[in-house]
Structure formats: structure tokens, C-alpha cells
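Researcher: Next entry in the queue.
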Amino acid sequence: MSKNTFESWENLVKKQLKTDDIYTILKKENLEGIDVKPFYNDVQKPLVNLPKVEESTHLVATYHETLEEDVFAFLLNENVENLVEKTIFINNKALTEHISPADEDQYFSLVDVFDESNMVIDDQLVKELLAKSFKRNICIDVSLHQNAGASIVQQLGIALAKTKELVEVYGEEILNKILFRLAVGGNYFFEMAKIRAFKLVFNQLSKEYGLDEIPYIFAETSLRNKAISDSENNLIRSTLELASAMIGGADAVFSTNYQIGNITENSEEISFKQQIVLAYESIINVFEDASNGSYYVEDITQQIAEKSWQFFLEIEENGGYLQSLKQGILQKKIYDQAVEEQKWVEEGKIKLIGVNLYPKLDVKKSVEELYNEKEIKAVRWAEMFE
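Model: Structure for this entry, 386 residues:
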């Protein structure tokens, strides 16, 4: 876009807002430290299409026998026999020990091989999983970190740091056996950019080992912005989160139940059918990189990638992921981020309709009741008002 054209857009905005001070008015704060412009006319370093592992995003449902004929991909918490020609995501540590998939099946592990509470890698679990013919044996789970209030930059930096810990122990050949489990929050374009940015930084890490790998990304909807008494809005939020994940290029998506604390068969079915509507009405699960070319998404993708890599390097300077946990460094960083985010919710800067805009006057928990700077634990924003 030429300078004259840019200036004409700028003048049009000034005219519409009836002020010359448009940048102050249109500036939008965010907790990620990302520079967001009021409008975009180009991107400095255009990206090529960012590929995904799966040609079409898997739409994953919690297993129920009534879904067997219609659903291709299931999340299993307990063993189910004869699921032939289905993609299976194992979500139970004990179950991974007993399943030996047939050749025609596609099995994935969603069990994190990091024992966060004891701050070690579960070496026995890793070796057992590597011996199985799963399509992706090893799960690195950073969904907990998102639900605990970690920033996008922190989530991706931690995912890289956990990856490097595994490579150091088991060798670089483990890189194409890893599945990354991410939680997708409500910041629509930022979350889209998060998935895209992780593809960039993971690929960069793989090149440090002479490889050119693409990360397998399993994205699930966040619990952080959901409320017990606000299930209809939960449903809207999770639908947008699924859209972010699909457009961003996740290989598999899963909708956590939108009814907090009151899960029913009906709510399980509706939660899954959000994905069906998005996939078959909008057809957004088949594109390789649907947001490529959007100046805004491209710009924030690259900013998130750069900041995530820097955060990863900070973790490495402190001795790596596990050592940073043992020193309490990461817990404190996530705590500080989560508390600041919770304050935005409390002040109404982050709006949760039906929760913090019109809260119950007699119910309000303190930040100290919700968070602990020595522990990474999931906390929903709405818990303050419930």
C-alpha cells in the first residue's frame, strides 16, 4: 500500500472519530505485551503457509456408544473394545499401559509424561509409550498452564522448554513422536496466532537438531473463562475458541463441557456438535493456514513467536523447565500473570457477561483465596464471584 493510500485511510479514521488523536483513542491494552496497531496496511515479513500434520482437523468427542457410527475421533478415559478405524486419544495413564493398537488404528496419548507435582519426567511412562505403535506416543501438556493463568508467551515458552528436556534425555528422534496439548482461551485472534506462532518456534527448535519438524497440536477449549451459572455464554465462548483453533491450524480439537459442574449426556452431545457445525457449515477444518495473509494475525503471530522464544531462552538460562520448577521461578511468573489477569476481570477490563459486570454483592473471593504463588493450578475467573 502506498504512503498516500495509508494517509488517506488515516485521514478517514480521523474524520470518523472527529479527532486527530486517533492512536490514543484506538490503542487497546493487552496482558501479553503485544503491540497492536489501530489498523494495518502491510506486514514486514510475510509468512508462507504454516502446515499442519493432519490434512483435516480431527473433531474429537468423549466416547459414547451412541456416537460410534457418526464420530471418527474419540477421547477415551476407559477401555472400549473394537473401535476399528477410529482415531483414539487416550486420556488415562492406566489405560495407556493396557492398549496395544492394531495397525489400522490411529492411537495418540494425551497423558503428560511430566510429573509436575514431583517435578520429574516419568521415565517409566515414556519408555512404555515409546514401545507402543501409537501415531504420537508422547504428550506435552500445557493446557494446565493456560487454565492456571499463564500468558500465551509463557505457555509456548514452557512447551519448548519441556520439549528440550525430553530431547536431552531421549534424543532428537522423539520430536516427531510428541503431541502438544494446548488450551485455547477467549482472545480470538491472539489464540489463533498462538497456534501459528508455536508452529514457527517448534520448527525453529527442531532445526537446532538438524530436523524440520511440524508440531502435532491437540487444542481444547479453556475452562478459565467459564462460569457455573452462565452455561449459555460458556457455549458461545467455547465455539469461538474452537474456531480459533481450527483457523490457527490445530490437528485435533476437543470441546470441554460447557456446563461447569453439571455434566449431562445432553451437554456432552451439544459440546461436541459445536465442532460439527463449525466444520460442516463453515468448512474451516480443512484449510492449511486459513488466516495467512491477514496483516493483523501475521503481525501478532510473529510478535508472539519472538517473545515465546525469548521466554524459552530465559527458562534455559535458569537450568531448564524442571529446574525452574524446583526453584519456584515458573510458578511465581505464572502467579504474577494470573493475578494481574484476575484484577482485569475484577475491574471489568475483561468482561464476562453474567459474571463480573453484574456480580452478586454478597459473594466475592480474594486473589489470595484463589491463587498460590508456589503452585500451578487451574483457576476459573468466575470463581471470584461464585
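Model: Strands lie at 58-62, 73-76, 87-90, 106-109, 114-115, 120-121, 138-141, 178-184, 216-221, 252-254.
Researcher: Noted, moving on.
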